[in-house]
Amino acid sequence: MISRKFAAIAAGLTLTLGLAACGGEGAGSGDDNNGGAANGEPSDLTVGVAMPTQTSERWIADGAAVEDSLKELGYNVDLQFANDQIPTQQQQIDQMVTQGVDALIIASIDGTALSTQLDAAGAAGIPVIAYDRLINGNENVDFYVTFDNENVGVQQATSLLVGLGILNADGSEGDAEGPFNVELFAGSPDDNNATFFFNGAMKTLEPYIEDGTLVVKSGQTDFGTVATQRWSQEEAQKRMENLLTSTYQGSDKVDGVLSPFDGISRGIISALEGAGYSGDDMPIITGQDAEIASVKLINDGVQFSTIFKDTRKLADQAVSAAQTYLEGGTPEPNDTDSYNNGVKNVPSFLLESDIVYKDNITSLLVDSGYYTQEQVDSGQA
Fold this sequence. Notes:
single chain, alpha/beta, Rossmann fold, six-stranded parallel β-sheet, 14 helices, 12% strand, elongated, Bact_Solute-Bind_Prot2, ABC transporter sugar-binding protein
């Protein structure tokens, strides 16, 4: 699936980059010659790609997309997955720097744990592109490619409100008045994006919590309490089971759950099913990443929504930025203010995401070639 999915994107990337350079759009549209660390033919250059894990299909797809696109342009690629182990990722990047890669694309496990590696890359003149997760506390982060992460949180919260009937899908006011019992989950506290998702969601939900339309019956609303270490499905299931045992007794029911990631959503669903929720009784559950197992759950009416972040577009921007550096230029950001890593505002290129509901799975995911209908039906890539 992965190779088929991204083959067309990789094959067309050279044209895409050329159009971006001519049109002034995309991460690779800069024409400065004050960045970059390499000269020579692509076949003489190597890009190190550090991905966090292979336990999520999303990161497998990202790694494949970046690798395929770079190879299509003629670059050598050193792709490594760290299995969610910080020391492993540190060692992998150390090795890439020592072996003399010409650029680095890094999706970090812990955005604060790579300063030694980035210092070494900076000293060697190796440009560093942070991939979807900002790397914090170091000046040697040259560029950041990601989605508009706060807006992802807004979309998750919006889809929760739509599922409850408080809003209509077009954003207009719905007929439902509540009160509705909801519970909140957030992502991993060591992932910079998790706070952006949660802040965007809470900005959207707080007015409804304040006026009583939504009731967080457990009282757990702060990020530190609702965060899920390493985005773990198992940890999410345990926390949901504890919430059901401690808070929802007798006729009390959960009406909705804000979930920031499809893996967490599946853990929540397992806990709810274990407590007897099913069919029309299943709460409205959000998600993120459009993982195929969750897309099937949406298609089957179990999970309500997810956020589609097209990794093909993200890979395009990362590869575009790397190519620009390797050709001696500086990538063109479309945001220079939103992402401060504690040392500097990191020039960024932000992409847009989409809310997936049952009725737009075909238009967003199948018609675009991201999945086939057979994969949606089976829940397997």
